[in-house]
C-alpha cells in the first residue's frame, strides 16, 4: 500500500513536496514554520479575478464547472481566486450557498482573498455521502445513532482564515452551541484528482488551526476512471523528527492506530498518511481503512462493546459505485 509524508518548507508549499517515500530520504522531511495560506498548492490553470459583482463570480464558476464536466476525466482546475473581496461579500458566500444560482461550491477567505472550489457534477457529493453512509451504518449498529452528527460544510475559523470542509464529524461532546463551535474530530475533503496537492494542504490547515483537535482528515480524489482515498493523522509527540519510514510502518502495523488525543501546536505537528485506498472499475487496492473509535469520539479508551469503523473492499465498491456506472 503506498503512503506519503507531507513534506513542507519554510517558503512555500509545492505539489513536488508530496512524494512517495521511495523518492525521498527521511532527511528531506522538515517541520513547518507557518500555516498554509489560502493560495497554497493551487493547480495550474487556476482562474484569478478581481471581485466586482457576484453575477460575474457566478459566470466564472459556471465556466469552470462546464470545463470540468466536458473533460474526459473530469479533471483539471476547480478553483476560482477572488481578489479584493470584502468581508461583507465573503460572509454572503459563506452564509448563502444559493447566491451563485445553482453553482455548488466550497469557500474560504483570508485577508481580502476568497477561494471558491467549484463542485462538478454528481460524483463529488455521491462519493462523499457514500462514505458517510458506510460510517453511519457501523456506528448505528452499535447503538450510537444519537451520539454523533455530520456538520456538512460548516465554516470554521482560525485567526487569519475562514474555511469550509466537505463534511465534518462531531461526537455529542463537541456539538456546537449558540456560544461555541468546537472543532470536529474528523474532516472529509473531496476534489478532482488535479486538486490532490491542494487537498493535502487543506489537511495541514485543519490540523494546524485546531492545534490537533481535528484527529483525522480523509481526502477523496476523484476522476472518472479511479477514486483515491487517503487517511491523514498526526504522529505522536514523541515520534522521531523527522519521521522515518520504519516508524511509519510500525504505526501502520498497529491494529488500532489511534492518533494523539491531545493538543499539539502547529509547529510541532508531523502529519502522515496512515492509509491509502485506490478504487477502479475492477480493483480495490489498499483496503481496509480503519477509523479508530477513540479518534471519532475523542475518548482515551474504547468501551469493550464498541468497535473501530473498518471500511473493507466491499464498502469502497459501494462508496464509489456511481463513478463507474
Automatic annotation (TrEMBL):
At the top level, the lineage of the source is Eukaryota
Lineage at the top is: Eukaryota, Fungi, Dikarya, Ascomycota, Pezizomycotina
Task: Give the protein name, as stated in the record.
Answer: Uncharacterized protein
Amino acid at each position: 500500500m503506498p503512503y506519503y509524508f507531507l513534506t513542507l518548507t519554510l517558503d512555500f508549499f509545492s505539489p513536488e513536496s508530496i512524494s512517495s517515500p521511495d523518492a525521498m530520504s527521511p532527511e528531506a522531511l522538515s517541520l513547518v514554520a507557518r500555516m498554509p495560506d489560502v493560495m497554497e498548492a493551487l493547480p495550474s490553470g487556476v482562474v484569478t479575478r478581481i471581485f466586482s459583482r457576484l453575477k460575474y463570480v457566478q459566470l466564472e464558476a459556471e465556466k469552470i464547472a462546464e470545463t470540468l464536466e466536458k473533460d474526459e476525466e473530469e479533471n483539471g482546475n476547480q478553483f476560482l481566486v477572488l481578489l479584493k473581496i470584502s468581508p461583507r461579500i465573503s460572509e454572503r458566500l459563506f452564509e448563502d450557498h444559493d447566491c451563485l444560482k445553482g453553482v455548488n461550491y466550497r469557500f474560504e477567505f483570508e485577508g481580502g482573498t476568497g477561494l471558491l472550489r467549484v463542485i462538478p457534477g454528481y460524483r463529488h457529493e455521491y462519493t462523499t455521502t457514500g462514505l458517510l453512509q458506510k460510517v453511519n451504518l457501523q456506528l448505528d449498529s452499535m447503538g450510537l445513532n444519537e451520539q454523533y452528527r455530520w456538520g456538512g460544510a460548516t465554516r470554521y475559523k482560525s485567526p487569519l482564515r475562514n474555511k469550509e470542509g466537505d463534511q465534518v464529524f462531531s461526537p455529542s461532546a463537541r456539538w456546537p452551541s449558540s456560544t461555541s463551535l468546537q472543532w470536529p474530530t474528523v474532516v472529509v475533503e473531496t476534489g478532482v484528482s488535479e486538486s490532490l496537492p491542494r487537498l493535502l494542504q487543506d489537511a495541514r490547515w485543519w490540523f494546524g488551526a485546531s492545534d490537533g483537535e481535528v484527529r483525522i482528515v480523509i481526502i477523496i480524489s476523484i476522476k472518472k476512471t479511479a477514486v483515491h482515498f487517503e487517511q491523514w493523522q498526526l504522529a505522536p509527540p514523541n515520534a522521531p523528527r523527522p519521521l522515518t519510514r520504519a516508524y511509519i510502518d510500525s504505526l501502520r502495523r498497529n491494529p488500532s492506530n489511534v492518533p494523539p488525543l491531545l493538543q499539539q501546536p502547529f509547529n510541532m505537528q508531523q502529519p502522515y498518511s496512515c492509509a491509502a485506498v485506490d478504487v477502479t472499475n475492477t480493483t480495490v487496492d489498499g483496503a481496509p481503512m480503519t477509523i479508530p473509535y477513540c479518534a471519532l469520539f475523542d475518548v482515551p479508551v474504547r468501551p469493550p462493546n464498541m468497535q473501530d469503523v473498518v471500511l473493507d473492499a466491499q464498502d469502497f465498491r459501494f462508496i464509489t459505485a456511481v463513478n463507474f456506472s
